[in-house]
Amino acid sequence: MRRLYLSAAAAIVANAFGAAAASGASHASPNVNAMRAAVAAFMKEQNVPGATVAVSVGGRTIWNEGFGLSDVEDGAAATTHSMYRTASMGKPMAATLAFMLSKDGKLDFKAPVQRYCPRYPAGRWTISVEDLIAHSSGIREPNDDDELYNTRHYDHPSDAVALFAHDPLRFEPGTDFGYTTWGYVLLGCVLEGASGKPLPALFDQRIFKPAHMARTRPDDPREIVSGRSRGYALTGGRLTVAPWTDMSHKLAAGGWITDTHDMLGFMNAWMSGKFLDSADRTRMITPYRLRNGSTVDNFGMGWFTDTYRATRFAFHGGGTPGVSAIELMVPSRRVAVIAFFNRQDIGGDPRISLARKLAEIAGAF
Fold first, then answer.
1. Of 15, 124, 297, 356, which residue is least crowded by CB atoms under 10 Å?
2. How many domains does the chain have?
3. Other beta carbons within 10 Å of 327
4. Is the pTM of this model over 0.85?
């Protein structure tokens, strides 16, 4: 596993903060200055080389700015055009698609997954489509070795179902919450079966084009992608190049590459009702109830959800080799926040706190 150690990493990152403002930055205002200060403090605390952060209110972008370095070795600045892996922030998009297909009459949430994805074998317990969306399927998470740092390219993303198809479940479906990326990979196979279309074409037609996400695409590491940000990790306290990985085995679960403009576009389209009616949107951000009536981790159906100052917000993080990210929206205020950082393994709580603070500065709470 190749890792490039950068002996002057700390100095490089410090210099990046000094040159934080990048092309595409919004005109400075007291609110924007407060947002910049919050991001700069976060990056210093978390030892982040580069970031792009954006905020919208009422469907209008009020701030979109790059900070630090997209590529430390070449001194390339992070900008509003920098491209990052979505990681698990692709899951709300997949869940939204499932609701759309259900509304079309093509997908039954209560049906066993084998109706749409026969390559996943029936086992001791029945897994429903709804179990996949709600992370109540019992399917395991990928391991931290060859499954996280995958080196095989999957031309057909649903082929990756074979990686976990014969593994035992962690619990009986519907009885507990167990976050699972593999569960959403299986959901991708279900979406293909229900729609009769390959995932890239399905997402492009139903999600990307309606939300004006012109730059979002599968994260194929073999392709030349303009603005692709270099990913980094901390190894023994030193900044290193993130290990290489191919995300094609997790496409529906977050194997896309995108930018801040497109991710704001998704959240704003979602909040405006372009994808779903009010009842389905409410269902997606209402804590899901297991068979015994309990809720776990405040997860709905595709979104995590919480309240702050009596105002409900929805969010989802993204973390994978080379990136840590957070998307957060406050539907009642039509406020959306997206933040990408080109260092992996930043904790979820600090990312959520930062995004909530930026939303608060924007007037969401």
1. 124
2. 1
3. 26
4. yes
